[in-house]
Every structure is written in structure tokens, then in C-alpha cells.
Amino acid sequence: MLAHTHSGLRWIALILLVYAVINALSRKGSGEFSKKDKMVNLFAMVTLHVQLVLGLILYFTSGKVNFGQGWMKEDLFRFYGMEHFAGMLAAIVLVTIGYSKAKRSEAAIQKHKYTLTFYALGLILILAFIPWPFRTALGGNWF
Ligand code: HEM
Q1: Residues of the chain with pLDDT under 70
Q2: Residue 30's pLDDT is what?
Q3: Burial of residue 51, with CB atoms counted within 10 A of its CB: 0-12 exposed, 13-18 middle, 19 or more buried
Q4: For the chain, what is the radius of gyration of the CA atoms?
Q5: Which residue from 89, 107, 114, 137 puts its CA 20 to 30 A from 35's CA?
Q6: Which atom of ligand 1 is nearest to the CA of 62?
Q7: CA 110, CA 28: separation in Å to the nearest integer?
Q8: 96 C-beta closer than 6 A to ligand 1
Q9: Global pTM value
């Protein structure tokens, strides 16, 4: 149930992140940073924070996290116990830094630039550390 929610929520997180990146790119030259721009960025960040909370609960309950002997040599256990956790955490930290740097900037163009840089980096990391079904050793699904 929790794993399903966490798995399905990836799509909302990805759509919002892609939307925020495209929005920052296309609004950069406009000279303004509207309430809508702020909301797009906020929703993307909040969805990631929800993923973090769900992920942390899964980290202590999922059978895919197992620190038994030799866990680093097992692709599945190494991925969920370390790679997925560290990669996603780094991505969420980047997006959060981007959001707060944008918030604290004065100029609209600077707000969009911070969003663009940090959200795009976060997006790349997230795409890299999702257990896509074609990475067969990881037992992931599409939803
Ligand atoms: C943007 C953030 C994240 C995204 C998009 C994401 C996405 C996913 C996806 C797609 C799965 C595969 C589920 C499946 O196919 O069955 C998964 C599983 C899992 N994730 Fe995340 N995750 C994120 C963050 C985290 C974090 C920060 C943690 C740990 C603190 C975490 C822990 C786990 C665990 C333990 C599983 C295995 C669940 C199971 O099937 O038992 N995730 N995650």
C-alpha cells in the first residue's frame, strides 16, 4: 500500500518537476516572477518532501532494505539501502535549496535561474535513481 503510493507519486513528482523546469526556462526573460510561478515550484518541492517521508517509512519497513551480511554485494539491497536513498536525498536537498534561493532573491530573472539550475539538477538525479522496471535486478514497477 505505502510502496504503491510512493511508486505512483513518482509520476506526479516528475510531471511537476518537468513543468517547473520548463516554466522557469520560458519565464526567465519575462522580467516577472508571479504567484503562479511560485506555486508551481512550491508544489513540486512539497511532492518531493512527501516522497521523502514515505521513503523514510519504507526504508525501515520494506523487505528491499536489508543490512544482512554481504548486502553491498547484492544489487537489490545495495540499491535501496544506499543508492536510491542517497541519490533521492541529494535531489530533494538540491530542489529545496533552489526553492529557498529563489525565494530570497530580489530579481525575477535570478529567481527563475535558481529554479532552473537546481530543479533541473534534481530532476536528472531523480531520473537516474528511480528503480525503472527495465533495471530488472531492482524489482520495480511502472506504477
Ligand atoms: C523523489 C524522491 C523519490 C522517488 C521519485 C522515489 C521513487 C520510488 C519508486 C518508483 C520506487 C519503486 C516502487 C516499485 O516500483 O515497486 C521506490 C521504492 C522505494 N523507495 Fe523511493 N523514491 C524517492 C525517494 C525515496 C527516499 C528518500 C527513500 C528513503 C529514505 C526511498 C525509499 C524507497 C524504498 C525503501 C523503496 C522500496 C519499497 C518496496 O517496494 O518495498 N525513496 N521509490
Answers
A1: none
A2: 97
A3: buried
A4: 17
A5: 89
A6: 41
A7: 8
A8: no
A9: 0.94
